[in-house]
Amino acid sequence: MESATDKSVKLPMFRGDRSDFAIYWIRLKAYASVQKYGDILVETRNVDLPDMASSVLALDATVAAEKLQIDAVKKNAMAMANFTMSFQTEQLMQLVIKSITVGYPEGLAHTVVAGLIKKFQPNDRMSKVELIKAMSKVHMSEEEDPTVLFEMLSGIENRFRTVLNIDE
């Protein structure tokens, strides 16, 4: 049954701009949490995901281990549907296409997540240099509102936190 929250939370769209990724990722994770598939949005394969999505047809949902497999396949399918709908460019759709396997013709979510993180949130020296450059470009003229400066700094701080995986 769908709740009012389910209807009010909209799937975020992503055009592939690196500067927008941190916000997209946070929004997608929030959306996925409401839709109950957030735990599948990781870079490694879910241990409960069977080799073939079609194999869940023979599983018994009353058996705990088999229910976990059924749920993992459903969550993967939901994640892949939402990636497919939220990606707005051919380049992003390549991540979906590359994740398709014989066992998962809709694709594997962990493969898409790994591709997104590698492309838009790499924890490497170049990413840090790019963020330091962005910091050096922040300035404010006398007639500018200081809140604009703080918003710019906040955006850079958010990108730093995601690149460096800082939680505090």
Descriptive labels:
mainly alpha; about 170 residues; single chain
Explain how this protein is built.
- By secondary structure, this protein is mainly α.
- The chain folds into two domains: 4-121, no CATH class; 123-168.
- It is built from seven helices and no strands.
- The chain starts with a helix and ends with a helix.
- The model has no long low-confidence stretch (mean pLDDT 85).
Secondary structure layout:
Elements: H1 4-8, H2 18-34, H3 64-86, H4 90-98, H5 109-120, H6 125-136, H7 146-164
Helix pairs in contact: 6-7
Number of structural units classed as domains:
2
Number of strands: 0
One letter per element, helices H and strands E, the order comes to HHHHHHH
| Outline | elongated
Q: How far is the first residue's CA from the last residue's CA?
A: 36 Å
Low-pLDDT residue spans: none
**Mean pLDDT score:** 85
Helix content: 55-70%
Major sheet details: none
In summary, what is this structure?
This protein has seven helices and no strands. It has helices spanning 4-8, 18-34, 64-86, 90-98, 109-120, 125-136, 146-164.
